[in-house]
Amino acid sequence: MLEHGGRLNRAVQQYGIAVADFMDLSTGINPNGWPVPRDLPSDLWSGLPQDDDGLIAVAQDYYQCDSLLAVAGSQAAIQTLPLLRAHSKVGVLSPAYAEHEQAWTKAGHEIVTIDVDRISAQLSQLDVLILINPNNPTGQRFSRQQLLNWHQQLAKSGGWLIVDEAFIDSDSALSLSSHCPREGLIVLRSIGKFFGLAGLRTGFVLAEKRILTALYEQLGPWPIASISRYITQLALADKAWQNNAKVQLKQQSQRLSTLLIRSGLTPSGSSSLFQWIKTKYAEDIHQQLAQQGVLTRLFLQPQSLRFGLPKSEQDWQRLNTVLQGLSVP
Fold first, then answer.
1. Which domains, and CATH codes, for the chain?
2. Does residue 3 have a pLDDT over 80?
């Protein structure tokens, strides 16, 4: 199994610190997510999910795309899309969200690891190109026009461009969602990061109808629980909260960057939800922080750390204190 952030129970056992005393900055999830109502309709627990409950219409409006499929988190699509193609050469960046590479490898496809500066040069060798925008964990951003150019080249020979936009909600000007559907273009969206609702396990695939039909047939009926569909619909419709969250997250991301720089940890990349620091001392810093009850996401290839956003002002002050006490060579 691949490593992921959010392994809080394991950290509790490893460091002997209670859950309540840990500050989990390892996931890149909005710590102040959309406020779920306390009073929810009781029939959501007993009835089967309904495809015509209004969720799709609200999602179409939010993503500005009529051709989409609701799935059990974008992870469900990541694991299933490789089953929809014959043997292909698949380009992936490194570092990047590793579940993409693992899913295509398990399905028998040939993986080609490429550097971001070599994408255009290697594109003719690929059948599928997979990008995360902004990239996780580096924060690398790709412009709409650059992505559309790459898509056009791939589509000429029946290729696919898959763009995972899990962290893009605060930077919607980069999104390709309004450019779907196009032949060979697949966009993945998530409710977990920006909305802070990872526990709902809700995501969307934006693509041409034939791909969505094939994906639906693989996933089967009722992929998302009724309660998740209901809450997702409310969150996607809440424009006021979304606009406010975009402003707050960008301010908080800048605050985190400033805090890290003052502590001698200059970020190498970022998004509105995390800061990424590439350093050969990553493992040592990760351990020091964890021993003080601050959990970060450690990467070994390359050696680096990802910091998510603190939740409260008390957490911000605590993080500042812990960072000031670091022993950084």
1. 8-34+240-324 (3.90.1150.10), 42-237 (3.40.640.10)
2. no
How many angstroms separate the CA atoms of 146 and 155, rounded?
14
- 271 close to 171: Cβ distance less than 8 angstroms: yes
Give the model's pLDDT for residue 16.
87
Where helices occur in the chain by DSSP H, the ranges are 8-15, 55-63, 74-80, 99-106, 119-122, 144-155, 209-219, 226-237, 239-262, 282-291, 313-324
Q: Which pTM was predicted?
A: 0.95
Is a pLDDT exceeding 60 seen at residue 77?
yes
CA distance readout (Å), 185 to 148, 152, 158, 205: 9, 9, 10, 10
Tokens (6 digits) for 9? 């129970």
Per DSSP, what are the bridge partners of residue 162? 130, 186
Of 29, 22, 73, 94, the C-alpha closest to 272 is 29
Q: Name the percent of the chain lying above pLDDT 90.
A: 91
289 with 296: CB under 8 angstroms? yes
pLDDT at 272 over 70: yes
The DSSP bridge pattern shows strands 110-114 and 89-93 to be parallel
Q: Are 141 and 165 in contact (CB under 8 A)?
A: no
The CA–CA distances, whole Å, from 230 to 37, 56, 110, 248 equal: 11, 11, 39, 25
* Mean pLDDT value of segment 142-149: 97
Strand, coil or helix: 228: helix
Separation of alpha carbons 144 and 292, rounded Å: 41
Mean pLDDT across the chain: 95
CA 164/CA 131 separation, integer angstroms: 6
What is the distance, to the nearest Å, from the Cα of residue 145 to the centroid of all Cα atoms in its chain? 21
- In whole angstroms, what is the distance from residue 48 CA to residue 278 CA? 46
Interatomic CA distance for residues 179 and 90, integer angstroms:
22
- Asked if the model's pLDDT at residue 2 lies above 60, the reply is no
